[in-house]
Design goal:
426 residues; mainly alpha; 87% helix; single chain
């Protein structure tokens, strides 16, 4: 693997992708924490629920698009062109969802919170920001899979991270107000919109000869057929996300809402960093002569990742527990929550690693969508685990939710094994 990384600029591309993605995701994480700490507790709770809802909804949307991509590629026999065009369509779909969210939030903005609801303005703002973040990540992935140079995208990604760091500085200095927030968000949207337009133009030109009108219409029909399930799933998840907020209000732990939003942001940071590595490695392995060679390399890469996780998770858990044991609760720093968040996120990643390996070998679109859904559930369970570390009655809630997600993942493994056996019978 090291020899492959040294060849053809692989290490340089890998470092660039991780640099841009860590800067982008890390600034989102810092901005989320300081934003919600700047506002009051009620506004903070609204933004936290909105961020969680938008994140899970984006994961479900990504699962639907992955499902459609695999079916489309299998039917037309052209994986590269289909994925590249689908990545560009991802931008349009998510952008349309962001516009729809703005329109849906206008009644709350015009009528006020008393008539429009507490969550409507915050959910509109947070969903738009999250949707564009997911869209920009998809733009980078599409650019890589199309085999294009992504230096311009890296520049816009770092520029967006710099704007968010200005937002963090404004929050830290307690100078942020609702009048300044729209201007900062406009600066944040500008590089993302420009980068999305660049990707849309280049990917459309590269796929112009392949994507006929019939194939475009079939692709869009498949996406819109999955749309109702996306909104149904999002509605169910937002009902689930109300459970920890209600529990926090009952047990009087208002600060736990901040931890809840921070945990979701941090788990998404880990997931996006892993996706960035995969986005670079997958297109660079196109030089393999057979599909079996690619699968073998991918399995080895996942094995190395799992070994690193198995080594780091116990160290993080031990160090976090040691700090908690030595320091009294009154002097316990906020960084202890980062230890728990990182440990839980990496633990979930290690549990899903083996399942993801089987999925890539099997290549079944239904199971691929189920894995994406289980990742969203695992991120949610990671936040519950983090809340459970604060003690009190939330521990039972965290154990219950973690058990449900674990059973779901075990069931998913049996589904994958059954699919592999049925394929071998043919």
């Amino acid at each position: 693997m090291l020899r492959f990384l040294r060849s053809d600029g692989m290490a340089s591309d890998f470092a660039k992708a991780l640099l841009g993605n860590v800067a982008n995701s890390g600034s989102v994480f810092l901005a989320t924490i300081l934003l919600v700490r700047t506002f009051t507790q009620q506004e903070f709770a609204s933004i936290g629920v909105a961020l969680a809802y938008a994140f899970v909804l984006a994961k479900i949307l990504d699962a639907g698009i992955s499902f459609t991509a695999l079916r489309f590629s299998a039917r037309n026999g052209a994986v590269g062109e289909g994925i590249a065009y689908l990545g560009a369509m991802h931008l349009v779909i998510v952008g349309a969802a962001a516009v729809a969210t703005i329109l849906a939030g206008l009644p709350g903005q015009l009528l006020g919170r008393a008539l429009g609801g507490d969550l409507v303005p915050g959910m509109a703002l947070a969903t738009v920001a999250t949707a564009w973040a997911i869209a920009f990540h998809s733009a980078v992935r599409s650019q890589l899979q199309a085999g294009r140079s992504y230096n311009r995208l890296l520049f816009f990604q770092l520029l967006a991270a710099g704007v968010r760091l200005l937002l963090v500085a404004a929050c830290w200095g307690k100078v942020l107000s609702l009048a300044v927030l729209p201007a900062l968000l406009a600066l944040y949207f500008y590089p993302i919109v420009v980068a999305s337009l660049l990707v849309w133009r280049e990917v459309t030109e590269s796929c112009r000869g392949f994507m006929t009108l019939d194939r475009k219409s079939a692709l869009l029909r498949g996406m819109f057929a999955y749309a109702p399930w996306v909104w149904i799933g999002g509605t169910l998840f937002v009902a689930t996300l109300r459970v920890p907020i209600f529990a926090l209000e009952q047990w009087g732990q208002g600060d736990g809402v901040a931890v809840f939003a921070a945990a979701l942001s941090f788990v998404s940071l880990i997931a996006l960093a892993n996706d960035a590595a995969r986005a670079v490695i997958i297109p660079r392995t196109s030089g393999f002569t057979t599909h079996a060679d690619f699968e073998s390399y991918f399995e080895k890469l996942r094995a190395v990742w799992l070994k690193a996780v198995c080594i780091l998770v116990p160290i993080l858990l031990a160090s976090g527990g040691l700090v908690a044991a030595l320091l009294p609760p009154a002097y316990l720093p906020d960084s202890i929550y980062v230890f728990y968040a990182l440990a839980s996120a990496m633990l979930v990643t290690s549990l899903l690693g083996a399942v993801t390996n089987l999925i890539h070998v099997l290549g079944r679109p239904q199971v691929e969508a189920a894995v994406n859904l289980s990742r969203a559930l695992s991120c949610l369970a990671g936040s519950y685990f983090l809340l459970g570390c604060s003690g009190g009655g939330i521990v039972s809630l965290a154990v219950f939710c973690g058990t449900v997600v674990a059973l779901f993942e075990v069931l998913l493994v049996f589904v994958v094994r059954r699919g592999i056996r049925s394929d071998y019978r043919v």
